[in-house]
Amino acid sequence: MPIDYAAFKSFLLAAALPPAPLILLAAWGGFRLRRGRRAGLAMLGVALLGLWFSATDAAGELLSRAVGAPPALTRSEVARWRGQPGGAVLVLGGGVRRQAPEYGEAVPNAITAERLAYGAWLARQTGWPLGFSGGVGWTATQLKQPEALVAGRTAATLYQLPLTWAEGRSRDTRENAAQTLPLLAASGVKHVLLVTHDTHMRRALRAFQAAAQPLGVEVVPAPVGARVDALSSLDDWCPSVEGFGRVRYVLYEQLAWWAGR
227 forms bridges with which residues in the sheet? Predict the structure, then answer.
């Protein structure tokens, strides 16, 4: 019987990412506490604190710093590339909404939309053409169109900036690099501003720099999603939807880094 890779991966991620491990720890601590084990109280306390902090922006920021998320480009760094020949801005896909009722078609999800917006801004600031890499991911089994097609439609209609390259066959970050960089190199591109989220950038750079070296292409990180300060406000230490998503994203990227995907 063939293994459903998409379902298996989804199950593993659900089991490995918050809140599942912390809920299991709380349940085990409660069980031991009922049996009079003092260690159960400690386990329960750790689980409850973990549940709280795993949904905060502060925890997401600390984890991002721990894994070495790169800083955002400054405006002066962007200006340095303006008008230089042989450059391109490349946006990596992060998923789509398969059907948005308000538009009547598939649209970029929040992650891809943020990357695409910054990529379009960089393209206008530098004068470089814009490209996008993203097909149908390993777990996106119900997606009917590659991400690149959806992103291209959005770039043309929303930003009036048609994609010069739209790579729609890749299924993960390594394939993004392997499929897209030869297209850019064949077009004479020597410098690539690589746009993805700060927490994904370390993994993306590993794949793209390895693929770019034989082609003589320079890859420059252009991350989005970095925080200026997510530690000093009381709100940063309180649970929020954004905080929970950021913590899960950082942990997901660390798992993917270890897996080499």
Answer: none
Domain range spanning residue 97?
75-224
Q: Which of 77, 96, 79 is nearest to 221 (CA)?
A: 77
Do 160 and 193 fall within a single domain? yes
Structure token pair of residue 193? 């501003």
Structure tokens at 85: 């020949």
CB 116 within 8 A of CB 99: no
Question: Which residues fall within 8 angstroms of residue 236, CB to CB, at 6 or more apart?
Answer: 56, 57, 58, 61, 230, 243
User: Residue 113 — φ and ψ, nearest 5°?
Assistant: -60, -40
The answer to whether 147 and 96 are in contact (CB under 8 A) is yes
| The two three-digit tokens of residue 191, written as one number | 């410098």
Strands (E), 111-208: 130-133, 165-167, 191-197
**pTM summary value:** 0.90
- Do the Cβ atoms of 189 and 90 come closer than 8 Å? no
Whether 31 and 108 map to the same domain: the answer is: no
- Are 198 and 70 in contact by the 8 Å Cβ rule? The answer is yes
CB atoms within 10 A of CB 7: 11
94 closest CA partner among 76, 84, 105, 107 = 107
Distances in whole angstroms, Cα of residue 244 to Cα of each of 40, 104, 189, 237: 26, 29, 38, 11
User: How is residue 95 annotated by DSSP?
Assistant: -
SS3 195: strand
Distance between CA atoms of 168 and 160, rounded to whole angstroms? 20
Beta strands in 147-244, from DSSP E residues, in sequence order: 165-167, 191-197, 218-224
pLDDT tens string 100-155: 899 888 899 999 999 999 999 999 999 999 999 998 876 666 677 899 999 999 99
Please tell me whether residues 129 and 90 are part of one structural domain.
yes
